[in-house]
Write a structure and sequence with these properties.
Number of helices: 10
Radius of gyration: 20 Å
Shape: globular
Number of strands: 0
Helix content: 55-70%
Length: 251
């Protein structure tokens, strides 16, 4: 009965998984207001390196997502509101772990958390993430086991749940499609560029008491990232909605 209740919760959380993490925002605000300690104690250079490293961690999560969706066929590994799987993925990143998309999402989330420079916030967010997603993963595995039976169980027995094993890579049947990655992941890239631009801007204006123009003059890279992200988002959205340039057969 407990498993059934956890699965029920997981299905509900799966449906609203794009919005419920917003409940962590108030805690993030508190962490943000105390994040200037790095600047005060270690200086601007260390803080800048830290922030760019956080940006790189978030982008690494997006890269892992790209490595997943670039290989998978239509009907799997997407942003949907309900469980579906037209095929059981056991190759590519799915030969390394059973839930690579959630591993990728955690890397993005980790980059977001680390930029607030609070050990307590990172620990809180990490625990919240796994308490949240363990139910979703249980619901997904119950769904897949019910649909694919022994085929799923044989794969699950030899494949780690979340952390990659970094061995035994199984080559996907389909070739990698960069167009599929562009079509499906451009919103994520834009979200990352917006998030870091806004956090860095607020950090400069609220915590460091700089005006916007002075901050842009000192750190033009963040504005450049935002412009690149905006142009990519608009261009790829237009291409997806009004052209067939990003269409790939069977993807």
């Amino acid at each position: 009965m407990l498993k059934n209740e956890l699965v029920r919760q997981g299905n509900w959380l799966f449906r609203w998984r794009s919005y419920l993490p917003l409940v962590i925002v108030p805690v993030a605000v508190i962490a943000f207001m105390q994040s200037d300690w790095v600047n005060r104690v270690l200086g601007d250079t260390v803080e800048d390196v830290w922030d760019y490293a956080c940006f790189a961690i978030a982008l690494s999560g997006l890269a892992v997502r790209g490595l997943i969706v670039g290989f998978v066929p239509r009907g799997t590994s997407g942003r949907t509101s309900e469980q579906k799987a037209e095929a059981l993925n056991t190759t590519g990143m799915y030969s390394q772990m059973r839930h690579p998309l959630y591993f990728a999402n955690f890397l993005v989330f980790l980059g977001f958390m680390l930029v607030f420079k609070s050990v307590v916030f990172v620990l809180f967010g990490t625990v919240a993430y796994f308490l949240y997603y363990e139910r979703i993963m249980l619901a997904e595995e119950t769904f897949l086991e019910g649909k694919y039976g022994d085929q799923y169980r044989r794969w699950a027995e030899k494949t780690p749940v979340f952390l990659p094993r970094c061995s035994g890579w199984v080559r996907p049947a389909l070739p990698f499609s960069f167009k599929s990655v562009l079509r499906r992941e451009y919103p994520g890239f834009y979200l990352i560029t917006i998030f870091f631009f806004v956090v860095e801007w607020l950090e400069a204006t609220i915590l460091d008491k700089e005006n916007f123009v002075a901050w842009i003059a000192e750190e033009p890279a963040w504005l450049a990232f935002l412009i690149i992200g905006t142009l990519a988002y608009v261009g790829l959205r237009v291409a997806r909605k009004h052209t067939t340039w990003l269409a790939v057969a069977g993807r």
